[in-house]
Design brief:
The chain is of the alpha+beta class. Helices cover 25% and strands 28% of the residues. The protein is globular and about 65 Å long.
Length: 461
């Protein structure tokens, strides 16, 4: 993972319900079809220098602090069954893998959280800060009659596979209202999703220092809610009619049991029909979820999702104000999938609380399971990996074979099937140049002597 400086604003202005209602009635700018997306305005940002090497170093320091028995519980097999062991519900037996924080010593807890902090973002209160606010919200539920199923210590950490700069492994960290799943391969982040996050209550002041200093005002998912409100308030009456879904949603569709079940037909309003300013609102709405990943990965994916904006759809149901039970929003792109829903409170019964999910059709669990975009990668993964993907134009694609070969070839083609480059190599790896390539999707085929060629889509921007 390259060290990147990412300057990106979050839409932080709070919009009250009455203001939103007035926006829904106000005349809006004329729709412009197929206008190219405008980049969100850069403002104050945060620089993060954490790399995958830092994550691996922190993970191995945590492992070294554990007993043999604890290590056996922490480190599990990276397979299709284990990657899906996460939930949005309070912790119960078998719902998650790994070690509970409250079963660790204070020193071990510090080391565990250092892994999570190194692996997640620093921009605008997202990433690790939001994780901490969600955990603090659980302490608030305990203090207000929620019961012992809640609490900042009732969160688990697991490594699926051995943390390393070679091979594939995954970091899982989650508990009530949180599921963080980040997959690594050969020193790169191959997928920061699925990411579930939610909160009850919506805002509170911490009454202890378990997670954040006492007296901290916390608003988990506050940026997400504000950006979603602004997005749908910025549509014209006609656009809202197109974006409105006929169904009623009381929770996210693609939650813990939604692996690979993306709808095949997008619904709602296509972003190519939006003005440049409205397209910026869409990117601002995606931003808080995508920036939960480490800063470099978040910046890279935001740039990539922007190239897909014309074919991204937005939709909603309920009031459109996102202040009532069953108010629901969806952003459905060729890769990115984001849902946001308001539910009636469980502990705070006179309030609402938020649920949300961020997925990527190609990158959930690092693209190893359940992929529905860029082709199913299971067969290709048995032959070769390619990273980074997407790649910056001018960089090189790294091809890594699963097993060393005495003789192998690669061929890079455009989507019309025209050959752009090819080469022969031996051993375990080679590089494929992307210099001179336009932004877009390409086909990379690798053929090991004596085997049929395997093809994967790669993206350049």
């Amino acid at each position: 993972m390259k060290k990147l400086v990412f300057l990106a604003p979050l839409l932080l202005a709070t919009i009250a319900s009455d203001k939103l209602a007035s926006l829904f009635e106000a005349p809006q700018p004329e729709t412009v079809a197929a206008r190219p997306a405008a980049r969100p305005t850069a403002a104050k940002g945060t620089t993060s220098t954490a790399t995958v090497a830092d994550v691996v170093t922190a993970a191995n320091a945590f492992i070294a602090s554990l007993s043999t028995t604890q290590q056996a519980t922490l480190i599990q097999t990276f397979n299709q069954t284990n990657v899906a062991k996460w939930s949005n519900l309070p912790v119960s037996n078998g719902s998650r893998l790994g070690l509970r924080l409250d079963a660790l010593t204070t020193a071990q807890q510090t080391l565990a959280l250092a892994v999570v902090e190194a692996a997640t973002g620093t921009v605008g209160g997202e990433g690790f800060r939001e994780i901490q606010e969600i955990r603090a919200a659980d302490d608030n539920l305990v203090a207000n009659g929620g019961g012992n199923g809640y609490g900042s210590g009732v969160y688990l950490i697991a490594f699926l596979g051995q943390p390393s700069l070679t091979g594939t492994w995954m970091l899982q960290f989650g508990g009530h209202h949180l599921a963080t799943n980040i997959t690594y391969r050969n020193g790169y982040v191959t997928g920061p999703t699925p990411k579930f996050e939610a909160t009850e209550p919506l805002t509170f002041t911490t009454a202890n220092a378990n997670v954040l200093p006492t007296g901290t005002v916390a608003t988990p998912l506050g940026n997400e809610a504000t950006a979603i409100q602004a997005l749908f308030a910025g549509l014209t009456t006609a656009q809202r009619t197109t974006a409105r879904l006929s169904q009623t949603f009381t929770d996210v569709v693609l939650g813990p049991n939604g692996n690979g079940q993306f709808p095949t037909t997008p619904l709602g309003l296509q972003c190519s029909q939006l003005t440049a300013a409205q397209q910026t609102l869409v990117m601002n709405a995606m931003r808080p979820w995508v920036l939960d990943a480490d800063d470099a990965t978040g910046a890279q994916l935001l740039s990539y999702y922007e190239t897909q904006l014309a074919n991204t759809y937005i939709s909603y149901s309920g009031t459109g104000l996102f202040t009532s039970n069953a108010d629901y929003a969806r952003i459905d792109g060729p890769n990115a999938w984001i849902e946001f829903v308001c539910q009636s409170g469980i502990v705070y019964r006179n309030q609402i609380h938020y649920h949300s999910i961020y997925r990527d059709r190609a990158r959930d669990y690092g693209g190893n399971f359940y992929t529905t975009a860029l082709g199913t990668q299971a067969a290709a993964a048995q032959v070769f990996a390619v990273y980074p993907n997407p790649a910056y134009a001018g960089s090189s694609l790294q091809v890594q074979l699963e097993m060393p070969a005495a003789s192998a070839t690669y061929t890079l083609r455009n989507m019309l099937g025209q050959r752009l480059s090819s080469g022969a190599f031996s051993g375990s790896s080679t590089e494929v140049a992307t210099s001179g390539l336009a932004i877009g999707t390409y086909l990379l085929s690798v053929e090991v002597a004596g085997q049929s060629p395997v093809t994967r889509k790669v993206l350049v921007y």
